[in-house]
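Hi everyone, sorry if this is the wrong subforum. Our group has a chain we'd like a structural model of before ordering constructs, and none of us has done structure prediction before. Sequence below.
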Amino acid sequence: DGSYQFEGKPHTSGEMIDYLVGIVRDFPIVSVEDGLAEDDWDGWRLLTERLSDAVQLVGDDIFVTNRDLLQRGIAGGVANAIFGTFLITGIATLIGVPSGILAGTYLSEYGRRSKVSAVVRFLSDILVSAPSIVIGVFVYALLVKPFGGFSALAGSISLAIIMLPVVVRTAEEMLKLVPDSTREAALALGAPHWKVTVHVVYRGAMRGILTGVMLAVARVSGETAPLLFTSFNNSFWNFKPTEPTATLTVTIFNYAMGPYEDWHQKAWGAAFLITAIVLVVTVTARLALAGRKGS
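Answer:
Right subforum, don't worry. Here is the predicted structure as tokens:
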């Protein structure tokens, strides 16, 4: 009937929205010039308490699913959303990164001044600034509606489209930074062009290309709008790429908009978890590349 129980009293959906808007409106903004007022300190204490709850939740019950905890009479977790995030982001990376590196290689090594390269650069620049929700609607019209359902694969394709222009432009610029004299020296030794590109040019530009890939992965890891139109959500485990799949970002959106304090805590924990995952993946990749260069 559109009503909710909150703090022991019934509330309509409109009253709940007004309550949430009031929280956002009343949250204090810190003034650097005037210092921290008492209300500002209260706001920061609230923020630190939320972050503390998030860290505690990550170490507590966030890695279990709704079904697991409901069987024990406890509120649910987001383990299925964690798996779905890795699944969708992993498939998107497998699609977007190789395609982007190959396109960047063509722009830098084979078609620098061709008309096709100019068109690819133009399209890449447009896609970089395109709103992610527009890409989500595009994939919805292309894959979701014709095939009759949401799926993890559709979500992965939407994220791959977002990743593609970042990887393309980064790969092209990093490959251009490799001196032409290095290419000429390898060609003078009789190496074919493709081998020069793979064994000489890629080696010199690897660190920059990896940075672009990490930037692209970090960007899509926080996307919510395209997934609402493509992979949607799922309250339970799903291992099939052709079925709706839960993700951390959509779960954060749903829980943050909910009226329950337990949902808000899990939203904070999931947000902290996404940040930690991106940080760990980035640092691990950089360390692995640094070790390879040292060897």
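For your construct planning: The chain has twelve helices and two strands. Strands lie at 3-6, 9-12.
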